């Protein structure tokens, strides 16, 4: 849910709606490495590199980009982090080379039918799914990734990034835009394309950008030290909290308590943990069982 205070300023739309201005950002991004030793580009050098003859016209374009996307310092122009993100987003999203593997069967089994889960990279999204019961992971991965990495590596990296995202969200920071992120539960409905697990879901969302998705409540606990220790006692790595039969969402039971908190009981063999989190995901209590 986007708060009106966090909408994109009209200037930003206008600034980027022009080919020359995008080229200026691309030139500055390409100069990034050289800038460490040679500094950023002067007006004339930048104008030369973009290939514009009319200097007053070029100045007009620079003005449009200034402050939001370009900062002028000591007669040199450097890109802001927002400008570099724009370049990254366009380049990674429009890769037109050959993409290697697109789909492969994994060792992971569907909890409903026991058939192998299939990993698929679908241009902009990496999916791990049971063909009959739905998706257990859907993570944005741009087309360029599949050109130089195996699908197996991409799945592992997506899971690690997803875990880091949840950690960031639990600290109240959106992993995509660094705006304010929130956790709320219970979530009433889960999209049909999701692999439905017998657990209670939360919604994680950002007040500033598009981010919003359901997460099984137990999966919020992957970075809690006592949970990491419990898995470590069973020689299980943090990745085991996210996938397969040892996934937190599969070995935990969730009980919603009347004061708005949730009690998550994690059971691994004979041992376990009871963790109570409050409405925004903060751990209130954590107790070893067995
Ligand atoms: Zn299935
Ligand atoms: Zn955000």
Automatic annotation (TrEMBL):
InterPro entries, per database record: ArsR-like_HTH (IPR011991), DUF7347 (IPR055771), DUF7351 (IPR055775), WH-like_DNA-bd_sf (IPR036388), WH_DNA-bd_sf (IPR036390)
Domain of life, source organism: Archaea
Domain DUF7347: from-to ranges: 9-90
Domain DUF7351: 107-283
Cross-referenced CDD domains: HTH_ARSR
Annotated SUPFAM superfamilies: Winged helix' DNA-binding domain (SSF46785)
One Pfam entry name: DUF7347
Name of the protein this chain belongs to: ArsR family transcriptional regulator
Source organism (scientific name): Halostagnicola larsenii XH-48
Organismal lineage: Archaea, Methanobacteriati, Methanobacteriota, Stenosarchaea group, Halobacteria
């Amino acid at each position: 849910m986007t708060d009106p205070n966090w909408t994109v300023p009209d200037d930003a739309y206008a600034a980027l709606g022009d080919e020359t201005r995008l080229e200026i950002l691309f030139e500055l991004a390409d100069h990034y490495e050289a800038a460490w030793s040679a500094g950023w580009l002067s007006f004339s050098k930048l104008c030369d590199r973009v290939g514009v003859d009319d200097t007053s016209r070029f100045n007009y374009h620079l003005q449009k980009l200034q402050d939001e996307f370009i900062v002028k310092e000591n007669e040199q122009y450097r890109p802001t982090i927002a400008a570099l993100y724009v370049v990254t987003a366009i380049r990674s999203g429009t890769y037109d080379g050959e993409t290697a593997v697109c789909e492969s069967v994994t060792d992971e089994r569907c909890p409903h039918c026991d058939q192998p889960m299939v990993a698929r990279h679908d241009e902009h999204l990496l999916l791990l799914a049971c063909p009959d019961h739905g998706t257990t992971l859907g993570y944005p991965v741009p087309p360029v990734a599949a050109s130089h990495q195996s699908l197996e590596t991409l799945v592992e990296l997506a899971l690690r990034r997803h875990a880091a995202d949840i950690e960031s969200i639990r600290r109240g920071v959106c992993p995509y835009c660094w705006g304010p992120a929130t956790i709320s539960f219970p979530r009433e409905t889960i999209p049909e394309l999701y692999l439905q697990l017998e657990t209670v879901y939360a919604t994680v969302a950002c007040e500033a950008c598009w981010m919003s998705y359901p997460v099984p409540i137990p999966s919020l606990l992957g970075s809690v030290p006592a949970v990491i220790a419990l898995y470590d006692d069973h020689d299980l790595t943090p990745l085991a909290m996210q996938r397969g039969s040892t996934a937190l969402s599969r070995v935990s039971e969730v009980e919603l308590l009347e004061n708005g908190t949730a009690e998550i009981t994690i059971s691994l063999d004979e041992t376990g943990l009871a963790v109570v989190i409050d409405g925004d995901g903060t751990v209130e209590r954590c107790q070893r069982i067995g």
